[in-house]
């Protein structure tokens, strides 16, 4: 089985994240950029398939600037076999529609049985790119899975919806997305780190790809930072704190 | 007036999803709301009447056996047909698990683009503009789509109101679904656990959240007691969820639910940046934590450095005394 895992570099959620004031685009300089945790869980899904069947081939695919290579190398050190990096200055500021069209173009030649992604990135939180890719490729999407089984030409898993959970299944090839409730990712081991350096990473530019036209695109009209919240009253409990708090809540009509 | 399509989700029991009212209300501010559903059977007069009362001028129902057994594909097909029939100025879809997958596929099919997780929509000289609150409310952003149809996923609970109170006259249009979208098969459905009597976390006016400071699943009952005393929803930090004190549905933060209640009370929560991203747009924040250096105090309007197991029971008592 050939599995392609989509990974995205995002600013560390443990740091303040900012927008570039001129464009409203994500400021990549402001915080450390890491492989999104949800993508590492997606990779873990693929690695567990490979643990059970060594003939499994895992490719990681990412689009983004030069430093995305670091994220791809990390995925290789965790156990992926090779990487594809779509790198092209013309892609800066791409919206979801363009990103999905480019990734779909890069995926076409991979002949993947399964494309695994996170259900939403921690930066944009749009959660639309995998479904757009599925539509471009004419594949079923088995999205929002907490748990998954892959094999025998099909995928099945548990999906949480707004009114309960569903058991869903599709024939391969398919696109699947994993939630934060799915398997926790492993750490790269020493051997993984050493072998990652020798694994192949292909770099593709836009001219290497036959990207479908995306006539419409989303644009940012305005953006503004909200002033940070200020700390209010802070007291040490001397036995009266609860009474003081009750008074505060009543006074401010909060109860 | 321009037509605005709204995707009305139905629960597997055939009831209208909670997101429908907000979508129709938002659509009514932009044009003529048209409700689009994909369903196994024709809608009952009760459901149609409900959508009319919520503001739908037209109900476009795509009927097909696969609507009961194929994930999201039938909704994409129904919307695609409705786009062709009504030439809408926008499509509004709930930012739900199903909704955003439908919006995404539709955008590729009709050559549109998505605006994701909108908290507001408005007309700006003929153009439809959506408002977004990103990085946990740290930034406000306005967006629009150029060169094609805007397909907007609307954050649930962000827009409420009733589009057309007292209305209900509605035109019903029926189309057959043919199954043109590849979709996963639904093999089984498990209902969500019986709805609790507590308010829904996403839209609650008051939220009481517990963190690792509660120490155990048994101790988490303290959060429930205060929530019940205040008629509040229950939230939790990721640490409390990971420790198994409470179900993941209660997780507030970067990767959980974002809440903007009138009052947010954080018990035993240190306030990692990822948690603050999910609650810092609350109007008033109260924090009780033993560790006075906890970052939660940086955003709290009222902070108590103290033991939750002492302060909270006293608080419940003080509030009960006032009610008597």
UniProtKB/TrEMBL annotation, chain A:
What sequence ranges are listed for the domain Electron transfer flavoprotein alpha/beta-subunit N-terminal? 23-213
Q: SMART domains per the record? A: ETF
Name a GO CC annotation attached to this entry.
cytosol
What UniProt keywords apply to this chain's record, in alphabetical order? Electron transport, Transport
Q: Which InterPro entries match?
A: ETF_a/b_N, ETF_b, ETF_beta_N, Rossmann-like_a/b/a_fold
MF terms (GO), sorted A to Z: electron transfer activity
Q: Name one Pfam family in it.
A: ETF
Does Electron transport count among this protein's keywords? yes
Q: Which residues cross the membrane?
A: none
Query: What's the stated role of this polypeptide?
Result: The electron transfer flavoprotein serves as a specific electron acceptor for other dehydrogenases. It transfers the electrons to the main respiratory chain via ETF-ubiquinone oxidoreductase (ETF dehydrogenase).
Sequence similarity: Belongs to the ETF beta-subunit/FixA family.
PANTHER family referenced in this protein's UniProt entry, alphabetically:
ELECTRON TRANSFER FLAVOPROTEIN BETA-SUBUNIT, ELECTRON TRANSFER FLAVOPROTEIN SUBUNIT BETA
Q: How does it assemble?
A: Heterodimer of an alpha and a beta subunit.
Official protein name in the record:
Electron transfer flavoprotein subunit beta
From TrEMBL, chain B:
Q: Known Gene3D superfamilies for this protein?
A: HUPs, TPP-binding domain
Co-factor requirement: FAD
Spell out the PANTHER family in the cross-references.
Answer: ELECTRON TRANSFER FLAVOPROTEIN ALPHA, ELECTRON TRANSFER FLAVOPROTEIN SUBUNIT ALPHA, MITOCHONDRIAL
Alphabetized GO MF terms:
electron transfer activity; flavin adenine dinucleotide binding
For this protein, the record's InterPro entries field holds: DHS-like_NAD/FAD-binding_dom, ETF_a/b_N, ETF_a/FixB, ETF_asu_C, ETF_asu_C_CS, Rossmann-like_a/b/a_fold
* Similarity remark: Belongs to the ETF alpha-subunit/FixB family.
Can you name this protein? Electron transfer flavoprotein subunit alpha
UniProt keywords (A-Z) are: Electron transport, FAD, Flavoprotein, Transport
Amino acids binding FAD: 212, 237-238, 251-255, 268-275, 289
Claim: Transport is one of the keywords in the record: yes
Q: Where is the Electron transfer flavoprotein alpha/beta-subunit N-terminal domain?
A: 4-186
Biological function: The electron transfer flavoprotein serves as a specific electron acceptor for other dehydrogenases. It transfers the electrons to the main respiratory chain via ETF-ubiquinone oxidoreductase (ETF dehydrogenase).
- Subunit structure, per the record? Heterodimer of an alpha and a beta subunit.
For the keyword Amino-acid biosynthesis, the answer is no
User: What is the cofactor note?
Assistant: Binds 1 FAD per dimer.
Q: Output one GO BP term.
A: fatty acid beta-oxidation using acyl-CoA dehydrogenase
Top-level taxonomy: Bacteria, Bacillati, Actinomycetota, Actinomycetes, Micrococcales
